Recover the amino acids of this structure.
C-alpha cells in the first residue's frame, strides 16, 4: 500500500480534518485502488486507459446488450470478444455504431478512440489461414487498447520465403505476437530472426496428435529462441493484451 | 531483407565500385546479419549489445574455460549458466575475476559492464525459498544484459501480507518476472495487482501431483489475469532474457 | 460389528427368546445397519439425519418423479441434483412444493426442514461468475443437510480486494468450500488467510490448457497451504456433502 | 479486516492517544495478523496453538539445527518432517530430547505438550505395509497438533475382514485419514462404512501403471462415496494437518 | 502348421493321389485353417462352436439386416452388439425371432441354441446402475456363447453389505466378470473375497477426473488382488468373450 | 541459394545487361524459387510435377469451387481432400469431370493425367474395414501424384492368413503404406516380412483406451521393426504424399 | 456368508451345545474364513492349495529369511519374488534347498511339491530377449502353484516364422501368457491364432515413446482379438497367478 | 508365399525328385525365407545385403565380444550400437580393427565394406550440438548399410542462415534425416524447402515441458509439411535404417 497516502489519511484524522468513519472508508478505498487495476473473469473491468472488455462466448445477446448499456454510460470504448454472428446482429440492432469482426467474433464500440498508448507498433503474425481468427482477436484487442497494429498472415514455416517477404513490417515492430497451430514452430523462427519480445499463441488448429493445441503449446514452451513467452491455447485476447502491456508508454 | 542495403550493393556492382565476387559475399553477409541476432542452443551468441552466454550444465569445466577464453578475446561480458560449484572452482582458477552465484550456478565475467539498456527496473519475484535458484538465474541474466533488477523472494500466496509488504518495489517495475512451483498461483495474484507485463516461470518445486512442474505450468497458462505470459519450467534464463527484451530501450 | 448387539442376539437365541430363523435375519440386518449409512451411486440413500438424494442428470423427468414419490412416502427432505429446466418443470407440475435452483439445477422438497445439524456456519466461496453453478450445488447440498450456509461469489485471485471485502463472512465459518476453475488458485489464498478446513472444488471452467478442469485440479492438489483437501472436478455436491460431514455436531 | 480494531486505531489517532507513526505500524500489523495464521512453504510458521513445522527433506542437518534453535527459543513444540536417519542423528546430538519416528522421518520436540485441541479422536488407516510411512507422518502431525490419534495399518481391500476387525476404533473417530497406494480403493470402502469426513492420501506405492501414485489419486477423486476429500500424493503431513483442522475445537 | 496333415498331403502328391494344383490349394487351405479361428474386427467370424458376431454401432440397419441374412444361411446363432433402439426395430421387422436387450443394445437370434459349452457358471457383477449396460453386454455375449450366466448388479464398494448379500451366487461361479466405473474398486474387493479368475471391465461412467474411464482402468490394473485381468474401457463384449474362453470345456 | 544463378545475376548487373531494379526482383524470385517447392497448409501449392491440393474439410462448397476454378486455369490435376458428400455434389455440378471417392471424401480432377512419376508400385494396406477411409485417402493421393497403387484392405493381425494371401502384391511394392487403428500392430508385422520402407498411419478407429488413435500411434512409434516411420493420426494424405516422395524417380 | 454354517451355529446356541461367547467367536471366524482366501500386499497369504508368496523387492535379506522361517514352519511351498542376486545368496546360505531363478529373481522352496492343480498346460510366450525376466516370473509363479508350464521365448512379431515354429506347444495349452514390450503386438497375433484365453503382460522394455511400458499396455488393451485380458506393466507374477487361477481344476 | 517355388517343390515331389521328408523341410524353409528378412530385437539379423547389428546398451562387453565372434565368422560387416567408452575399449582389445564413434557409441567392423547400395546420397541434419549423438547414430547406420552420407550439424531454426549455408549439400540428397530436440521444428523447415522424403527423429534434448522428447515428437507428427515421417525419440538407428531402405537400389 502507498505509504504516503496512508500517512496522509492518518494525519488528517489526527488533525480532525477527517472523521473516523470517513477515514475507515478511505482506507478501504485506498486498498481497493491499489489492486483496482485488476481485470476480472479474463475480460472485465480493464480500467484506466484500457477499454472495458466483455467475454461474449457464454453470454446471451440480451445479457451482452445489458452489460454494454451499463458500460457505455461511463466508458468511451468497449470490447466484446467471441460473439457469434447471430448474437452480433442482435447487439448491432441496439448499437448500430458497433463494429463486428466476423473473423474472430470481436465486437467493438468506440465513442471516442483511445489515445495512442504505444511506444511503437505491434506486429501480429500467423502461420496458416486457419490461425487467422486467433490472430485477429489479438490484433483487435491490441488496437482497441490504443496501439498501432500490423498483421502478417499465412506465413508458416513450410514456406519461409513468405515470411521473408514481410521482413520490413515485422522488423520495425516493438512486440511481435505469433499465432500458430499444428507443430507451432513459427514463433521460434520469428524470434530467431528478430531481437524483439515474441508472444506466442498456440492455436487448436490441427487434428490427431495435435491434441487440441497441446503439440503447438509444448513446441512454443520449448522454443530454442529465448525471446519467446507463451499464452494459453487460442488465447488471442490474452496475447493482444500482453502485447499492449509491453508496448505501453510508461 | 533490408531493401536499402540490397539496392546499395547492386548499385555498387552496377557502377563497378564492387566486384561480382565481393558482392556475392556481401549479399551472403547481408542475409546472415539480418538473422544474426539470433542466439543458438538457448544460450549461444547473443550478439550486439547482449553478453555472450554459455549453457554450462552439460559441459565440462575444461570446455567452459576453452569457450570463455575464445569469447573473452572479443567480448566484454560473458554469462555461463548452470555451473556446478566444483566446475565453478576450476573455472575461477583460470578467471579469478569471474563472479559465481552459488544459488543458481551462474558465472559471470564483466571486463566492462554493459551500459544500461533498460527503460526501467525489472522486478524478480518468487513464491518460496525453493524457487530462489530459478529466480536468481532470471535476475542474473537480466542484470548482465544491462538492466537494473530488484528481487522479492519468498512471498507465496499462502501468506499474502508478505507480498503486500513489498508493494513499492514491485509497483515501480517496468516488467515483473514471477517464479513459483507447486500450484503456481503467484503470477495471477501479482498480475491482478499490477498493470505490467508479467513473465511467469513455473518451477519444478513440488512432489506427487506436481508432476515436475506441470501443475504450476498449467496454472500459469490458465491465469485469470491477462497480463501473464509463460516460459518453460525452471527456465529462469529465458524469463530474464525475455524481461530484458521487454525492458529494452529502442 | 457392534459386539453388544451381537451378544444380545446370541443370548436371546440361547434363551429361546429368539428363533434361529429370526436370529439369522437379525444378524443380516445387523451387518447391513453397520454399513447402511453408505450412500449409493454418489447420491442415493443418505439416511439417518441426511436427506435423500437423487442424481438427476441421466434420469428422465418421469423416473425422477417416480423415485421422488417413493422417497417422499417416508422422508421429510429430498434433494435431486443436476435437473435441467425442462425436467424441473415436469417434476414441479407433480410436486408444486419443490424448489428449483436454476443456477445449479438442484431441486429440493422439504416437507419439514431438517433440524440444524451444524456446529457453525459453512462458507461457500467461488472465483468467477462461471463457477457459480458448482458453488450453488455445494451450498444447496450443505443447506438441505441442515447447515447454515453463507455464499461469497466472484472473488477471484486477480482482484483480491473483492475477497478481502468479505472477510467477516468467511472468517466466522467452521468450514470453507472454495470453487474455482482456470488456474484454481483461490483455495490456496483462502486457506492461507483462514485457519479453517478448506474443501476445494476444481471446476471445468476454462479452455485450451485447462484440459477440462485438470489445471485447476492439479493446482489445488499442490496447494502451498496445508488446510486444503480436494474433491472431483465440478463436484459441488461432494464438496457440500463433505463440508456438512465436517460441520456436523457429534 | 477486523472493522472493530480498525475503527479503534483510528479513534485513538483521532483522540491523539496514538501517533500517526504508531498508527501506521499498527495498521500494518493488523493486516499481517489477519493473514498471519498462514503457514509458509508448506510447513513454516504454523502459529497460534499449532506447533512450528520445518520441512526437512531439502535441508542439511546443520540448517535444521539452526532453525530449531531459533524456533525453540519461543515455541513449546517443533515438528521437522522428512528427516533421514543420519540427519536425525546429528540433530539429536544437539537436541537429545527430540523424538525421531524412523518410519516416516518425523522429528519432534515437545518442551511442553500442546493442550488437547481436538473435539474427538482422529483415526489414521492405511492399506498396505508400504503405506505406513505416509500414514505415520499423518499420525505424528495430527498428534503434535494436540490431537488424540488411533492408527489401523495394513487393512487393504483385498482382505476386508482385516478392516472389519478394527470397526470399533474407526467407528468412534471424528475424522478418518486413509492412506493407500496401488488402486487406492480403501477410502471409498471406509467412507461407505462410516459417516465421517474421510481425508484420502494417495501414496506412490506401486509400479507400472500406478504412474507414481496417479492411479490411486484418480481413484480417490472418483470415489463413489461423497464423504471423501483428497490431498496430494504421499502428503501425509497435509492429511494430518487437515484432519487436525477438522477435529479442532472452535 | 499341423505336421501330420502336411506330410499327408505331400505323400498324396508323391503317390499321385493328389495333383500338384490341388495340393497347392490344400496347402493354402491348411494354413488358413490353422489360424482360421481368429475373429475379425472384434466381432466377425467367431467360428467353430461360437456364434457369429456383428459390431452394430457403425452399421446401418440395412447393412445389419444384409449381413444377418447371409450369416443365418449357415449359422444357428448370431449376435449383433451395440444396436440402437430404432435400428433394432428395423432389424426385428425382418427377423421377428430376434431378441433385443434394450439395456446394452445386443440383438440375438438363436435358430437353435448352442449346446452348453461351459465348465460352470459365469457371474457378471457391476458396481452401479450406470454400469448395467456394459455388464449386460458381457452377460449376453457369454450366454449366447453357450454359458450359464448369473448377474449381480448395483453392489458398489460404498455399500459392501449389498455385495455380501449375493455371496452364494458369486461364490459358485467359475469365472467372475466385474464392471465398474468411477474409481473402479469393485474388482479388487471381489477378487480378494473369491479365489476365481476375475475379468475386470472399466466403464466410462463418471465425470471430471474419471477422464472417460481412465481412472477406473488404472485402478483395475493396479489391483492389490492378483486374480484380476483387465479389458478395454466399456468392452463388455470382450469381457464376456474372455469369460466364455476361460469357462470353456476343453 | 544457387551460387551460379546469383553470380550470373550479379554479372549481368555489372555488365549493365540487367538494371538494379530488375536485379532486385530477380534476387527476390531466386530466393523464393529455392524454397518455392514448399506446400502450405498441408495441402496447398504442390508445384512442379505434383498436383494442386486443397484441404476441403473446413471450406464451404462455394469456396472449394472458387479455388478450383482458379487452379484449373493453370494446372492439369487438382486434388481436394475431405469433402463431404453434399459438398461434393455441389462441386460436381460445376465440374462434372470431377471424380469423387465416397470412402475417403477425396475429389479429383485430371484434365490430363500426370505422367508416371514412380520407380515402382506403392502398396496401401489396412487392418480393418474401419481403416479403409484413411487408406483410400493415401491411395488416391499417391495415385494422383503419378504413382501406380495397389490396395490390400482388411488384413488385421488377428487373422494373419488374410495378410499372407496377398503376399505377391505387397512383396513387389517399392513402398508400403500401412493404416491401422486399435493396437496398431500391423505395420510391425508387415515391416518384419518385407524389407521395404513402411509408412505407418495410425487411425482413430477404436474406443476407450485407444484415446483417439494414441494407442495405435505409440504402438507404431515403438515398432520392433526398424523400417517403419510414422505420420499423424488419420493422416492418409500425408502417408500417400510421403510414399510418393519415396517412390519418385529422381 | 454361508447360510448353512450360520444356521448351524445359531442352532447349536439355541440347543445350548454352544456358549454365547464361543458362538460370537465362531461367527467372527466364519466371516474371516469367508474372505480369508484373499492374498494381501500382492503376494501375502495365498492359502488353501497355493504356496505362500513374499514380495522381495523392498525387503532386506534378513527380513526375507525371517518371514521364510515363520512360513516354512507350516507351509510346504514358499515363493519369494524379485530377489536380487546378493540377497539371494544370503537367503540360500540359510536355506540351501532354495532354488534361485537368476533371470527373474524368483526364489522358491518346495519341501514337498504341490500336487498338480491344473486342467492342462500353461504356455508362457514372450516377444524379445529383454522380456524374458517378466516371462520367467510368470512361469515360475504358475509352476510353483502346481501347474505344468511350457515356455516359448523370443518370438516377436517382426519375425513371425519364429512363432509359427512353436505352434504345437502353444496350440495344446489351456491358457497362454504373452509378455511383450515396445509396441506390445504379440498378444493380438497369438490370440488371433489360438482360441484360448490369453493373459497379456506389457513390459517396460523400450525407450522414448514407450513411456515405461505405456505403449505396450495401451496396445494390449486395444487388441483386435477379444480373447485377451491385461495385467499391470511388468507384472509377471500377476500373469502367472491369473493363469493358474484359470487353469485350476474345480 | 512364392507360388512358383511352392509349385516347383510340389512338382518335384510328384515326380519323385524330392522325398516327402525333404519336401516338408523345404516348405518350412520356404516360409521362413519369406519372412526371414525381418530383423529381431530392433537390431538383430539384418540379413541379405545389410550388416549384422547388435544393440549394445544392455549387454556386457563380454557378451558383445561373444556375439561378434559368432557373427564375424560369416558376416563381412557388423554394427554394434550404444556401446559405452569402457565397453568399447574391452571390445577393441579383442577386435583391434573395430572402429568406435565416441559421439554416438557405435562400433563397426568392416572385413570388407558393403558395396554401394544407394540410389543417391543421404543427408543427416541436426538442430543443436546436443542432437549430434542421435544424428551420428543415424549416419553411421546408413553408411555401414552401404550408403554415401553427408552430415550437416547445428543448424537449428533460431538461426536459419546456418541452414541456408548448407543448401547445396542438402539439396542433392535422395533422403534427408533430421534430428531435433526441444520444439522439434527443424524437420518442418527442411521439408518445406526440399521436395524429398524427410525422416524426422525427435531427441530427448530439452528439459521441463519437453517431457523427455515428447514435445519434439508431437511437433514432428504435426508438421505442416507433408513429406515428413517420424521415428521414435532418440532412435537414430531407426532413422538411418529407414533412410537406407528408402535410398536402396531395387
Amino acid at each position: 500500500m502507498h505509504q504516503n497516502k496512508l500517512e496522509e489519511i492518518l494525519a488528517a484524522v489526527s488533525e480532525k480534518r477527517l472523521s473516523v468513519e470517513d477515514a475507515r472508508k478511505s482506507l478501504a478505498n485506498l486498498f481497493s485502488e491499489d489492486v483496482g487495476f485488476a481485470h476480472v473473469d479474463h475480460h472485465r473491468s480493464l480500467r484506466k486507459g484500457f477499454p472495458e472488455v466483455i467475454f461474449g462466448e457464454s453470454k446471451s445477446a440480451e445479457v451482452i446488450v445489458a452489460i454494454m448499456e451499463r458500460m457505455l454510460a461511463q466508458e468511451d470504448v468497449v470490447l466484446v470478444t467471441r460473439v457469434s454472428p447471430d448474437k452480433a446482429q442482435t447487439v448491432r440492432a441496439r448499437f448500430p455504431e458497433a463494429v463486428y469482426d466476423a473473423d474472430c467474433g470481436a465486437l467493438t464500440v468506440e465513442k471516442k478512440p483511445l489515445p495512442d498508448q504505444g511506444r511503437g507498433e505491434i506486429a501480429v503474425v500467423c502461420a496458416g489461414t486457419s490461425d487467422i481468427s486467433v490472430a485477429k482477436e489479438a490484433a483487435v484487442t491490441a488496437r482497441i487498447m490504443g496501439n498501432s497494429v500490423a498483421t502478417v498472415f499465412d506465413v508458416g514455416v513450410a514456406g519461409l520465403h513468405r515470411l521473408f517477404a514481410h521482413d520490413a513490417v515485422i522488423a520495425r515492430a516493438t512486440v511481435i505476437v505469433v499465432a500458430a497451430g499444428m507443430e507451432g514452430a513459427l514463433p521460434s523462427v520469428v524470434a530467431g530472426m528478430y531481437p524483439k519480445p515474441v508472444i506466442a499463441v498456440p492455436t487448436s488448429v490441427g487434428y490427431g496428435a495435435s491434441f487440441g493445441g497441446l503439440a503447438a503449446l509444448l513446441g512454443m514452451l520449448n522454443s530454442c529462441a529465448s525471446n519467446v513467452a507463451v499464452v494459453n491455447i487460442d488465447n488471442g485476447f490474452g496475447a493482444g493484451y500482453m502485447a499492449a502491456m509491453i508496448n505501453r508508454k510508461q
In short: The longest helix of chain A spans residues 20-35.
